[in-house]
């Protein structure tokens, strides 16, 4: 397995998942205890008392502090020990790690790496979140028995839609349509248009199209674990240009992947839509179709994971559609390498003179 990039923002939960109760959350193979303070803000602490290692989530809250359930050591929201029953001195080593948190658009983000590098301005955002012409709806937290790399690669791969989702998001009309890939910039992007084709099941349900449509899929993968799928349809006769996709029925499916362990990933998915905003039942009906499609993905990804855990007989092959996933893997490896090493050559010794 590759490992986890720690210096990045990950989704710890939807806002509705975190309340005043102490809750254990596992991310990147680490246990964290989370709760809401009396002022409503979210706290995340290492879920292990430094004394006898009992999880703090098995203790109790006392105001905005957490008391260990074994011997009563009590920690504030910064992770500092503020009480050791039976003694007045507080050892400097009696602390737990506190993790930076940002709550935005009803999503709770956590930073598992170096706190000094946690910039709230780099939390993922889209203008559509704040645009009144778009409706936002949070879906589920899908638990996948699969490594996060496989889950992420699936979300920058338009080619699988024709075969895995033939009744919901794809059809045979797109099987041989070329996929375009762009790997420059913040996101890896893979996309294609299927022109003058019958609408797929999703847009038969929500587009109200009577005839053929032009439809698109744009897959954006942001390292390490955020994916946005921009897909939609418009009447073929309108000859829609790529930059005019808002004129059609357009959906953004967002996937926030949280690696739990090497073989367990939580995919929290939601959507933004420019259609059916006045229909109170639209979000639920869309959720039903998304659940069907994502269950199809789950079956594939978990089967792949099982095979990856078995002894390999030969090296796997790569084909043309794998350009995006290959670049993604390289970006992950580059980030992991940066975290494994410390750059001590930023101020070179006078013994070395550089001429480039």
Set down the secondary structure blueprint:
Blueprint: E1 9-14, E2 23-27, E3 30-36, E4 42-46, E5 60-62, E6 65-67, E7 74-75, E8 81-83, E9 101-104, E10 107-111, E11 135-144, H1 148-154, H2 161-164, E12 180-182, E13 187-197, H3 201-206, E14 213-222, E15 226-235, E16 249-261, E17 264-273, H4 282-308, H5 323-340
Antiparallel strand pairs: 1-10, 2-3, 3-4, 5-6, 6-7, 7-8, 9-10, 11-17, 12-13, 13-14, 14-15, 15-16, 16-17
Helix pairs in contact: 1-5
Quickly list its features.
5 helices, monooxygenase, four-stranded antiparallel sheet, transferase, 2Fe-2S, 356 residues, single chain, iron, seven-stranded antiparallel sheet, Rieske Iron-sulfur Protein, Rieske_2Fe-2S
Give structural notes:
GO terms for molecular function: 2 iron, 2 sulfur cluster binding; metal ion binding; methyltransferase activity; monooxygenase activity. InterPro entries: Cholesterol_7-desaturase (IPR050584), Rieske_2Fe-2S (IPR017941), Rieske_2Fe-2S_sf (IPR036922), VanA_C_cat (IPR044043). It comes from Salipiger marinus. Pfam families: Rieske, VanA_C. It contains five helices and 17 strands. The protein has 356 residues and is an alpha+beta fold. The protein folds into two domains: 9-117, Rieske [2Fe-2S] iron-sulphur domain (Rieske Iron-sulfur Protein), CATH 2.102.10; 126-332, Naphthalene 1,2-dioxygenase Alpha Subunit, Chain A, domain 1. A hairpin with a 4-residue loop joins β12 (180-182) and β13 (187-197).
């Amino acid at each position: 397995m590759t490992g986890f990039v720690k210096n990045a923002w990950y989704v710890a939960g939807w806002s509705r998942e975190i309340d005043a109760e102490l809750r254990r959350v596992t991310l990147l193979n680490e246990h964290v205890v989370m709760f809401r303070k009396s002022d409503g803000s979210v706290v995340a602490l290492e879920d292990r008392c430094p004394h006898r290692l009992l999880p703090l989530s098995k203790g109790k809250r006392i105001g905005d502090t957490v008391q260990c359930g074994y011997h009563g050591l009590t920690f504030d929201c910064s992770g500092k020990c503020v009480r050791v029953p039976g003694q007045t001195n507080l050892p400097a080593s009696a602390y737990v790690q506190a993790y930076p948190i940002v709550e935005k658009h009803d999503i709770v983000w956590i930073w598992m790496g170096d706190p000094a590098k946690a910039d709230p301005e780099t939390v993922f955002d889209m203008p559509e979140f704040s645009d009144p012409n778009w409706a936002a709806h949070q879906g589920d937290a899908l638990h996948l028995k699969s490594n996060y790399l496989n889950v992420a690669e699936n979300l920058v791969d338009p080619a699988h839609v024709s075969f895995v989702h033939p009744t919901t998001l794809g059809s045979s009309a797109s099987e041989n349509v070329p996929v375009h890939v762009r790997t420059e910039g913040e996101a890896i992007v893979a996309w294609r248009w299927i022109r003058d084709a019958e609408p797929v099941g999703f847009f038969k349900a929500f587009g109200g199209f009577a005839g053929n449509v032009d439809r698109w899929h744009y897959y954006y993968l942001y390292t390490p674990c955020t994916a946005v799928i921009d897909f939609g349809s418009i009447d073929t006769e309108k000859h829609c240009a790529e930059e005019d996709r808002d004129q059609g029925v357009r959906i953004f499916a967002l996937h926030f992947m949280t690696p739990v362990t090497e073989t367990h990933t939580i995919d929290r998915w939601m959507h933004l839509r420019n259609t059916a905003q006045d229909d109170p039942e639209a979000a639920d009906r869309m959720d039903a179709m998304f659940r069907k499609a994502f269950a199809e993905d789950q079956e594939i990804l978990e089967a792949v994971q099982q095979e990856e855990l078995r002894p390999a007989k030969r090296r796997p092959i790569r084909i043309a559609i794998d350009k995006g996933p290959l670049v993604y893997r390289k970006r992950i490896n580059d980030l992991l390498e940066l975290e494994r090493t410390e750059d001590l050559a930023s101020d070179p010794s006078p013994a070395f003179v550089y001429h480039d």
